[in-house]
Amino acid sequence: MPEIDYRLAFEHAPVGMVVSSNRTIVACNLRVCEIFGATPSALVGHSFSILYPSVVEFERIGKRMEPFLNANGNYADNRMMKRLGGLHGAIASETFWCHVTGHAMNRAAPHEAGIWTFEDLGSRRAVKAELTPREREVAAQVMQGLTSKEIGKALGISHRTVELHRARLMRKYAAATTAELVQKLIAG
């Protein structure tokens, strides 16, 4: 059996991959550069915060994932991310839905070192509606099929507040049902 060059496999993986340390990008592959429209030098050595629509969302999601990473070392969600632009026709600051999966190398210090994958759910289409940070969080939870009560518990807000945000999302995306809303959220 021929010897496998794991660095080459990392570089050419069909999903975006990042090795991180304390929420800073240490290494990234070509696919993650394509997804975010950036060169490796624009990503490596920088905080993941540059890939979020806002620093507040970066901090909030970082806190939300810690208990999961502490418990089993893994975390996954769908969230809005931001392209840096400049490569492959990516428009700077364009937001898109992204599936993010991560693995903490040390559960006791989950952000110390990790391996992350990124998959563009928006198929290179910009998000059609302007969403508030909270609407983006609720939308990400809706895409996972959670009820308003489950979303409220996950986000630390009341289920009635979730229902208000869900109603706004339905109006903004002109969706008649939750299933239609999920389909339109994925489509951008």
Walkthrough of the structure:
This protein is α+β, with helices and mostly antiparallel strands. 41% of the residues lie in helices and 20% in strands. It contains 8 helices and 5 strands; from the N terminus they run αββαααβββαααα. The chain has helices at residues 6-11, 30-36, 40-43, 55-72, 133-143, 148-155, 159-172, 178-187, and strands at residues 16-21, 24-28, 74-82, 95-104, 114-120. Strands 2-1-5-4-3 form a 5-stranded antiparallel beta sheet. α6 (148-155) crosses α7. The N and C termini lie far apart (44 Å). 30% of the residues are buried.
List keywords for this structure.
188 residues; alpha+beta; five-stranded antiparallel sheet; 8 helices; 41% helix
Structure, briefly:
By secondary structure, the chain is of the alpha+beta class. 41% of the residues lie in helices and 20% in strands.
Mean pLDDT: 87
| Proportion of residues in helical segments | 40-55%
- Rg from alpha-carbon coordinates: 17 Å
Could you tell me the number of beta strands? 5
In terms of structural class, how would the helical and strand content be classed? alpha+beta
Helix tally equals: 8
Major sheet attributes? 5 strands, antiparallel
Q: Give the CA-CA distance, first to last residue.
A: 44 Å
Give the SSE order as H and E letters.
Answer: HEEHHHEEEHHHH
Q: Stretches where pLDDT falls below 50 for ≥5 residues? A: none
The share of residues in extended strands comes to: 15-25%
| Side-by-side strand order of the widest sheet | 2-1-5-4-3
Shape: globular
